[in-house]
Amino acid sequence: MTIIIVMGLCCFFYILGAWQKSGTGRGDSIALRVNQETDCTILPNLHFETHHSISGANPLIMTSKVIEPCHIRYSDYTPCQDQNRAMAFPRENMTYRERHCPAENEKLHCLIPAPKGYVTPFPWPKSRDYVPYANAPYKSLTVEKAVQNWIQFEGDVFKFPGGGTMFPNGASAYIDELASVIPLADGTIRTALDTGCGVASFGAYLMDRNILTMSFAPRDSHEAQVQFALERGVPAVIGVLGTIKLPYPSKSFDMAHCSRCLIPWESNGGMYMMEVDRVLRPGGYWILSGPPINWNKYHQTWKKSKLDAEGDQHRIENIAEMLCWDKIYEKEDIAIWQKKANSHLCHQMNGHASKMCKVQDADDVWYKKMESCITPPGEAAQLKKFPERLSAIPPRILDGHAPGITEEDYEEDNKLWKKHVNTYKRVNKLLGSSRYRNIMDMNAGLGSFAAALDSPKSWVMNVVPTVSERNTLGIIYERGLIGTYHDWCEAFSTYPRTYDLIHGYHVFSLYQNKCNVEDILLEMDRILRPEGAVILRDSVDVLNKVRNTVSGMRWKSKLLDHEDGPHVPEKILISVKEYWVASEEENNS
């Protein structure tokens, strides 16, 4: 009887399986249709290597839905820092250099072209010292900063000797002097802010000491300085200390730096120093080299009287004292202050209660006006030294200052992203190599994607969208990573072709019904280098819509299953931007 029952069951399930395999069975026919639509296999012709280190462009594969190229005059277009639009705004307090994004009817709906002759940047660390001329064909700085060793033009490349206005003998020697005062070697200092960074040589050479620097400078007469920084493989954004708060959370940076950045620190009641104080971690350092330091020697060069130059430094000293910063070093052109690790008592003793900001959330900064007030100090976070800091539970989570995020959530997030990154590396074996130097994570969460990738060969710009339910950027900085706030309905504060790889986790789901999918994709295309890669992780419905758009953007794409199998609705879209440059025919049309 047992044998008969077993044989009967075998026959029944064989017939059932055959019926479902035929497609007549409803459940499997739906699964079959979904699999056909998502087509979850890896294309043999999806290549991640670069093919244009010297010259030549691949033939373009056009599709039925085509987004046309823009004119070559837009090759370096920065939508929210457009020079023509900027002139309509007042110059007072650098308002005209701040973000001013185009209205909906002014947005470009075309692909930003690379200049003729564009090539893949040199791999790090060679890229620190050399940039192909064709990628940023602007020679003005080679003349203007010739005696300061910023940049030199040699043959078909720019050479960066590592000099700066205040360190003509090189950033390395300059950093050595700072290291005699500040603990730069033991992992205490990990995140730095460079205001008015020039071509970011300071940040470039700090990388030798495992320090990540967020460098920023305006798009101004120093043509393409931030573009040069990113071509060199150094983190940088277009930005300015003007009237709007910096897009970083409070207590983010271990060190802040100004080397002849020409920011009027003593003006507006010390507002700019107060903003640095907001983003500077308790116990952090502020370095000021250049005017008005060493005024006695240089006041005539600066075309200032002794009285005025001395007065400028005196006002800075007074503001620093009000902020409870201690001056710990001054020699020749350099002065260094250290923010007290616990400034509660200092502020109480000095009667600063009336000068404290009234804001409820010191991290709520997107398009918020800067104020002449002191950010309440709060408790000093006990951070581990880097690299332990990268995986340790951040103080904001430990102290309960991250609503909805527990220690268990943090640990699980780390495990999950290690698994995801391993999957990415199986698909794209060049991930983690020098092929991808500048990486952006469009929806960074707790920064676990960047942590899983951590390598001296690359860095990640961790973006926390302003529409996110959870503000996690402070946690990211506590891990020893860098990033910024941003709204992806607007253009990012960078030049075109500045990122090698863009990663987006549920970005398009997040922005559903908030702005146009095509606008976000065009912005991604603008900031992605030719032959750069994109990894998107989202629901299958969302990614199918995205794939439909990018088919006309000169991207090659493929949809892949989730690591846990084809029945998981979350999928992975892998794309590679084709190499192409502006042509005469497109410009004439």
UniProtKB/TrEMBL annotation:
<dbReference type="Pfam" id="PF03141">
    <property type="entry name" value="Methyltransf_29"/>
</dbReference>
<keyword id="KW-0325">Glycoprotein</keyword>
<protein>
    <recommendedName>
        <fullName>Methyltransferase</fullName>
        <ecNumber>2.1.1.-</ecNumber>
    </recommendedName>
</protein>
<dbReference type="InterPro" id="IPR004159">
    <property type="entry name" value="Put_SAM_MeTrfase"/>
</dbReference>
<comment type="similarity">
    <text>Belongs to the methyltransferase superfamily.</text>
</comment>
<keyword id="KW-0735">Signal-anchor</keyword>
<keyword id="KW-0732">Signal</keyword>
<keyword id="KW-1133">Transmembrane helix</keyword>
<dbReference type="InterPro" id="IPR029063">
    <property type="entry name" value="SAM-dependent_MTases_sf"/>
</dbReference>
<dbReference type="GO" id="GO:0032259">
    <property type="term" value="P:methylation"/>
</dbReference>
<keyword id="KW-0808">Transferase</keyword>
<keyword id="KW-0333">Golgi apparatus</keyword>
<keyword id="KW-0812">Transmembrane</keyword>
<dbReference type="GO" id="GO:0008168">
    <property type="term" value="F:methyltransferase activity"/>
</dbReference>
<dbReference type="GO" id="GO:0000139">
    <property type="term" value="C:Golgi membrane"/>
</dbReference>
<keyword id="KW-0472">Membrane</keyword>
<keyword id="KW-0489">Methyltransferase</keyword>
<feature type="signal peptide">
    <location>
        <begin position="1"/>
        <end position="17"/>
    </location>
</feature>
